[in-house]
Predict the structure.
Amino acid sequence: MRKPINRSILASTITLCCMGLATTAMAQDADADDSRSTPDVVELDRVVATAQKRSENVMEVAAGVSVISEERLEAFGATRLNDFAAYVPGFQVDSGGAPGQTTMALRGVAPLGGGSIIGTYIDDTPIGPSSNKQRATTYALDLLPYDIQSVEVLRGPQGTLYGASSMGGLFKYITKAADPDGFEFRAGMDVNATKEAGDVGTGVRTSFNVPLIEGKLGLRASLSRQGTPGYVDQPDLTGDDAKDSNGYYQLASRLALTWRISDTANLRVQALSQIVDADNSSAVGLTYPTLEPIRGPLEGILQRATPYRMETDYYSAILDWDLGNVDFVSATSFSETRMDEVQDSTLVYGVAWPLLTPYPAGQAQFDVFLGTRKWTQEFRLSSKESERFEWLLGTFFTGEKNANRQQVSAYDANGIPLPFNPGTASLPGTYDEQAIFADVTYKFSPRFDVSAGVRHARNQQDFEQHSTGLLYGPRPIDLADSADDSVTTWKLASRWHLNDSAMIYARYATGYRPGGPNVSTSGVVPMTKADTLDNLELGFKSHFWDRRAMIDLALFRIDWDDIQVRVSENGLSWMGNAGSARSQGAELSLMVRPAERLTLGLNAAYIDSTIGDVPPSSGLVSGSRVPMTPRLSWSGTIDYDVDVSDQWRGRVGAGYRVTGERVAGAYDIDSYNALDLHAELTNMTWTVRLYARNATDERAYVSTGSVRDALNRYVAVTGVPLQPRTIGMSIDYRY
């Protein structure tokens, strides 16, 4: 049962006001015309976020928001989430080795269960399944970040404005819009070398923007391809799968149009496609529970090849219309994702062949296909910026058609197929949701305001299961089920501007993740309930020291109820609701310009998270920390600008990221740190960059997974190693 919180909110708001009175004397008034402000500092003041579905200065948003610019992505040669996630406080990204084999956690809200807990958006529309049958916590959108203007990370539940599956936060790609006014052409290439890899990595990219009708219609197009060589060996495989077997490539293309219909109406249309194709898993074999390499630190224990491929197609149309007193937005999208993966299940099922059949222990392979076709439509009206009262009203619809096909195949010890069917399953389903939402802000004075928001959503799900084979029982299973649920989320926030450059805020917000029908096996509950989350947050944001410094500090407490977890027995898994969890802590972002050309940055998070009672078969431990959640993580950056000549300027910089010890079931994952370096020389037409990721060649595991056989015994742990030292150079031309 949800606890009464009205008194807590009132007390928090009163406390916030008192904090404001106490700290006014400490904050310095900013001089907007200070001639000493450097370009980077001015840029900080112009950074905008769309967290509240309005373009706002990030320092004015009453929530934890981080914005990673295109410049920062390019400086580190980023090609996937893992390359920059550690520079966002409280944001933990684990990887299975290739883009898309990605799990995300924020503020100790980890990807337990099957449905997404962090929403993913491209511009104004969501992408990715809402159903808990599509393993969205394991396979998240990971775009090759070219033609991306920025990335936004919203920390804490966003259920009021963004709805289902965003209870931990929101991850948003902001793409570059086509410009009807100007011509632009870019092209570039990248070459890099990874220690222990036999091949070099290469990347090529190009984009252009051209006005089709001057001032009215603009076209933008881009194409990029990135190849990453393998560095993990699989001695038990043969041929190309044995040496440097975990290489992959990314192929991304995008086409965008902007049509200025009139002085008051603007239409943006885009089509985006990405393919990720990986040869094999990046996981190596580790002993349980000591996590010592079974073989070498970069040697796996696969007995079956494990190719992986993810395809994403996305289309959107966004209409912005100024109706005079109000603004109208229509955001429409259609997306299709297809994921094929082969998993080596020899250690899970191979031992069971003598128990189920007359055949001796051997090999096993698990093939899974996940497909989602999703359309969304959002309409919203919002008031103009006002000195007293602002409002936003919207409605949202989504429809999903999901495919989930699974096949377990049996082989003998030499890899020859055995003549029986261990298990075949098809789990098709649909997910439909309708929601209405509203957000209002009342400004009691130019320095103090209160905002409130509410969202009511209803979802309907249809689910089928068609399964046969020894693992599912003596008879085939053919069933159909349906479920519907209604959830209301809300938020209350207040801001107190101490002066023109300092603000404190309080925010209480809720979020949820849909439940749904369960897989049918013996002893499994037929339905999984939605899990819910409450977040209380206090924050302070300020520019100070004549706008040469910026600070963003947040304290939070999260209560998570009816957690959806994956329960596994006899090699099968299903969803269940198990207890609660609590996460509380602090996040800090700090940027300082102590000298004209020198910029220093610090991001840090301290998270104290505890999981409640859970069944042992979930692989979790009651009373332990939430998985994937380091107690302490931090990163620092340093950048120094130099003038090389009248036409050329340069920049050198470094980033240092630290991820603390984490818990994964019944064992701990050691902490690790990595040093990233970069240098740049540009005349605004030609740009040459050098970069080194993990420059000290730190050896660590970015993620792990426990392996339990069909008898529920721990037999091994798989660990995905941190990518070894990678040194690269890129050249870009811009016209």
